[in-house]
Amino acid sequence: MISAVGLRKAFGDFEAVRGIDVEVRRGEAFGFLGPNGAGKSSTMRMIAAVSPVTSGSLRILGRDPAEDGPAIRARLGVCPQEDTLDTELTVRDNLVVYGRYFGIPRSEVARRADELLEFVQLAERGKAKVESLSGGMKRRLTIARSLINRPDLLLLDEPTTGLDPQARHVLWDRLFRLKQQGVTLVLTTHYMDEAEQLCDRLVVMDKGLIVAEGSPLELIRGHSTREVAELRFGVGEHEALAAKVEDLGERVEVLPDRLLVYSDDGEEVIARVHERGLSPVAVLVRRSTLEDVFLRLTGRTLVD
Predict the structure, then answer these.
(1) Rounded distance, CA 121 to CA 77, Å?
(2) How far from 246 is each of 193, 223, 243, CA to CA, in Å?
(3) Partners of 232 in the beta sheet?
(4) Model's pTM, two decimal places?
(5) How far apart (Å, rounded) are the C-alpha atoms in residues 119 and 121?
């Protein structure tokens, strides 16, 4: 569905994407993770055939976006990070009008609009104005709109940003159903749990390069331990205490408010900490997550 080799994107002297190789297979959910400025959005815009490639090879649905941009875009669905719905139109008319841009006959686009409203659980709000919808409803409507042309490839940029947990889970369910129907999903997200839930494979980008690739489980196994023991001591004590526990795990990470000890047996780490006469204010043992991998690969420094 997508094949990129040595893909680069430059804006003047700044190179946002610095030569990446990506392959997305039919029917899978593929994710791009990375901090702000990693090159995710620039990559997505090239895949959407709306931003020209600076150098390298890119094929979308087997076609060259430089030569077949309109044909590619006709088979894509795009859910942008910001909702761009027509607030003056009704919920249903947002779908009907958008479908007409693709040249879909009126009777057919009306039928598809009704089907999609049922799919995203908005059938009862079809006659309502968009401005009356909640944030979660607007996101579901945006996804419905992106499906009006029955795309082979659906691009989702931060699909659940700003939504409450209930709305996020509803969207996850809808996206999982689309994948079961054979739609190929490509998404960016800052939510590590979302990537674990939705993605079959993903890449982690940093500074325009791919620094890791694989399934969520493969990345966790390759870049972290099975468990993490979190130790919280008094304010300002963590740096000094790190040396006293560094031999208890594969590695120790010092945060301002706690120590993270990476080990395959977190409970054993806690027991040995107490044996050494150390008394944490609070302890927690949890499994390693994609967030541990992400922060190890891209760092904990804030990127604006």
Answers:
(1) 19
(2) 28, 18, 5
(3) 282
(4) 0.87
(5) 6
Would you state the structure tokens that stand for residue 240, as one six-digit string? 């000094």
String of DSSP letters for 230-247: EEE-STT-HHHHHHHHGG
Of 89, 301, 295, the closest CA to residue 211 belongs to: 295
pLDDT single digits (tens) 183-224: 999 999 888 888 988 999 999 999 999 999 999 999 999 999
C-alpha 146: how far from chain center: 17
Query: Residue 242 has which token pair?
Result: 């790190």
Lowest-confidence segment of 39-43, 102-106, 294-298 by average pLDDT: 294-298
pLDDT attached to residue 268: 96
Q: Are residues 234 and 115 in the same domain?
A: no
**What number of other Cβ atoms are within 10 A of residue 173's Cβ?**
11
Q: Are 229 and 210 in a shared domain?
A: no
Q: For residue range 274-303, list pLDDT tens digits in order.
A: 999 999 999 999 999 998 998 888 876 544
Q: Which residues pair with 131 in a beta bridge?
A: none
Q: Let me know whether 209 and 233 are in one domain.
A: no
- Separation CA 27–CA 154 (nearest Å): 10
The count of other CB atoms within 10 Å of the CB of residue 120 is 22
The verdict on 234 and 206 lying in the same domain is no
* Closest alpha carbon to 154 in 180, 177, 188, 183: 183
Q: Report the distance separating Cα 261 and Cα 280, nearest Å.
A: 13
Question: What order do you get walking across the sheet with 2-11 strand by strand?
Answer: 14-24, 2-11, 55-60
Looking at residue 302, what is its pLDDT?
47
Q: How confident is the model at residue 235 (pLDDT cuts 50, 70, 90)?
A: confident
Host domain of residue 237: 225-287
| Neighbouring-strand partners of residue 14 | 11
Q: How far apart are CA 18 and CA 31, in angstroms?
A: 18
Number of domains in the chain: 2
